[in-house]
Fold Methyltransferase family protein.
Amino acid sequence: MERHLISRIAHTDHPIAAPLSDESVERLLDRATRGGAERMLDLGCGEAPWLLRALAARPKLRAVGVDLDAEALTLARRSADALGVARRLGLHHQDAREFSSAEPFDVVLCVGATHAFGGLLPTLAAVREHLAPGGVAVVGDCFWEREPSRAALDELGGIAAEEYADLPTTVERVVAEGWTPVQGHVSSLQEWDDYEWAWTGSLAEWALDNPGHPESEEAATVAAEHRHGWLSGYRGTLGFVTLLLRRTAA
């Protein structure tokens, strides 16, 4: 089953592709734009839920989203039309690593999509290229809440423990790259649980509602395996932090 299709279905009931509640998203957006941001970029935007929320609440804002999933971008355009913000939203179907713009952005987001750049630090390097002086980066990535067990690593696809660090080390690495955290949010266990139940539940329900679809059985299998991996492997071990960052003055 195509990865983008799995993701779109799995995020039906939780459009934000990260363990963040609606309240947390709004609070982060409010903080990131409080300086009067006029241009916002989302690298790996998917269906652009961050941008759509930001645009709907801020009539002076213009936004750009970049993603490789053409269908997700089509859905984002439809949502933008429905909200009446389509004229202020530009969407680009391309690799986020190749995106370029003649103008910098006041806010650059990459939340839950750092894999597109090969990890947190490469993501920060890419974000830096697009950020205006004094601008705010909103970057969300995983960390270890506690030392991962072999079972947790196996359930996460057999990744190495070095894939992530603990929270203090993660933040120290960000600071060492020339960034200053000005705000942050560590997702709670409740936020993780809400996200995972929605992810696995939406995919499982789609399989139940489409028994004749050629990919129904695979969708049900993916949902069941993901649910097992979360509950029996990385629940309470894998954390998620969203950092609001400004470039440290030279």
Q: What stands out?
A: The mean pLDDT is 96. The beta strands are 39-43, 62-67, 89-93, 105-111, 131-144, 179-186, 238-247. The chain has one domain: 19-190+240-245. The two ends are 48 Å apart (CA to CA).
